[in-house]
Amino acid sequence: MNWIKNFVRPKISNILSRREVPDNLWVKCPETGQMVFYRDLEANQFVIPGSDYHMRMPPAVRLKGLFDEGHYEQIEMPKVATDPLKFRDQRKYVDRLKEARQKTGKEDAVQAGVGKLDGVETVAAVQDFDFMGGSLGMAAGESIITAMQTAVRRKAPFILFVASGGARMQEGILSLMQMPRTTVAVEMLKDARLPYLVVLTNPTTGGVTASYAMLGDVHIAEPGALIGFAGPRVIEQTIREKLPEGFQRSEYLLEHGMVDMVVHRHEMRATLSRLVRMLMHVPEPLLIAGSEDTKGLATAETETAGQGDAAVSST
Hints:
This protein is about 40% helix and about 15% strand. By secondary structure, it is an alpha/beta fold. The protein folds into 2 domains: about 20-55, no CATH class; about 55-280, Alpha-Beta Complex (2-enoyl-CoA Hydratase, Chain A, domain 1). The strands form 2 sheets. Strands 3-4-5-6-7-8-9 form a 7-stranded mixed beta sheet, with helices on both faces. Helix 5 (about 140-155) runs parallel beside helix 7 (about 180-190). It is globular. It starts with a helix and ends with a helix.
């Protein structure tokens, strides 16, 4: 028996031919259990084709999809103290931060950029729920404030995509202080008479809901998003009553006047563009000469003019 030929060589061949299968090759729908190929989900803006369930969307992908041709300038965020309270529960806070940064490749939960939205310069920020639940700490607070100040400096509208579990408990009172600080930054936008559009995604809860997430000029929610202060289970245990069906979901909040509209992700960019143009008093882009829309408009104007001439003649 040739040991190298019959044993070693097959082992080496298996190792070399083995393919690594990505962990996220297939994604399971939380509602129906449908399995979707990741690339198909990505191409559909992270909306499950069958159930229309809106999955969480990476911040970089959301920013790229918002701005014209995917081009935007990333806003550099200020550095803050990493662990000011030297906090530790089951694990050190610094270890949790390190793990979150390795997982997302980002320093903290908020990313922001400046770009053109259908030709209008716009500043947008996105909270990343994958980074410690999108929790609001000093770094996230500074990022939001910096992005809002950038909008004021550039005289540009500001759009915020919110996804958060609330304040970051590992930073204690320093985290809670971000609520009034971001509120002051919102007032800066209002004093500058600049639009502040909030897109509430799944989930938006806790101290974030109690501060900047509910201070926008227009509040848009994605379908089925959980939006509230305390979670439904906590409320049920507190009041000891069964909550209505769909409680704290986007559609329920729309019916009760808590949000202005519920917009499907496929329509989100067009909706934001329309609102930005309306609030910034920017006219819609002119139709291209010779296009079908222009021809139809010209035909309608000719017919209207003809009817007017006929009316004058008969008079």
